[in-house]
Each structure stands twice: as C-alpha cells, then as structure tokens.
Design brief:
Layout: H1 2-15, H2 23-40, H3 46-58, H4 68-84, H5 86-98, H6 104-119, H7 126-139
Helix pairs in contact: 1-6, 2-4, 2-5, 2-6, 2-7, 3-4, 4-5, 5-7, 6-7
Length: 144
C-alpha cells in the first residue's frame, strides 16, 4: 500500500508542476530514469530502453511540460553511456542528477521521476530502493 501511495504522490508532483523545464533539469530527470532502469536488475538491455520509451510516451500527459522527444533523446544518450561503460555511465548520471541539488522543486521532480520509473513495472525491488537512495544522496535530500 505504501508503494502505491508513493507512486501516486510522484505522479501528483508532476501534475501540479507548471514551470518551464530547464535542460539541466531534463538531463537530471532522464538520468534518474536511466539509473533506475539500469540498476534495478543489475543490467541494462536495449529492450529495456525501448520498453521504457514506450512507457514514457504513454504517460506524455502526466510528464508535461517535458518535451517527450527531448526526453527520449537524452534518455537514450545516458542509457547508451551506461550500456557502453556501466561504471562511467553511472557516475555521469549521478553528476547530472547532482547538478540540480539545491533547488527544492527540481530535487522533488527528480525524486518523483525516479519513483515513477520504479512504479513502471508494478513491483518494487530492493535494488530499486538502493538506486533511489543514491539519487536522493546526489540531490542532498532524504528519502520519503
């Protein structure tokens, strides 16, 4: 039940957000998506990248005002970096996430994006919670 409430809160965060999304924030959000997908099962496959793109396109209304085409390109870039060099890609994704630390609204949106990615497959793995902890640490915020 708590997991469903967290996912609902994450979606609500997006619905009430109406400011312009900066490129820096978009990179942080897509990095959070990529880390959750990549590290949930310890591996990232091209099929997972493609499946996640389908998912975010289905949720385009929820993820407004993000430009979904831009999100797809950025997600494919960072996921590709993780595929080609997992350690360096992981570090780079965390750097992109940390770039928005200090802005409470942006931190909340990045955390909400990670929670949406976790909720995407309707199950919650302990590895996903570990990734969420890493993301929150990079943002300098606490887990909910």
């Amino acid at each position: 039940m708590v997991f469903q409430q967290e996912a609902a809160y994450a979606l609500a965060s997006w619905r009430r957000f109406d400011a312009n999304i900066t490129d820096q924030l978009a990179r942080a959000i897509t990095s959070a998506f990529a880390l959750v997908i990549a590290l949930a099962d310890g591996d990232l496959a091209q099929s997972e990248i493609d499946r996640f793109i389908v998912l975010i396109r289905e949720q385009e209304a929820v993820l407004a005002p993000l430009n979904i085409d831009r999100v797809e390109l950025q997600f494919r870039d960072i996921a590709g970096a993780i595929l080609s060099d997992p350690s360096e890609g992981h570090s780079h994704a965390l750097e992109l996430i940390a770039a928005v630390a200090g802005d409470a609204i942006h931190c909340e949106l990045v955390r909400a994006a990670a929670e949406i990615a976790i909720a995407a497959d309707n199950r919650e793995l302990s590895s996903e919670q570990e990734v969420l902890q890493e993301i929150c640490a990079a943002l300098g915020i606490a887990l909910r």
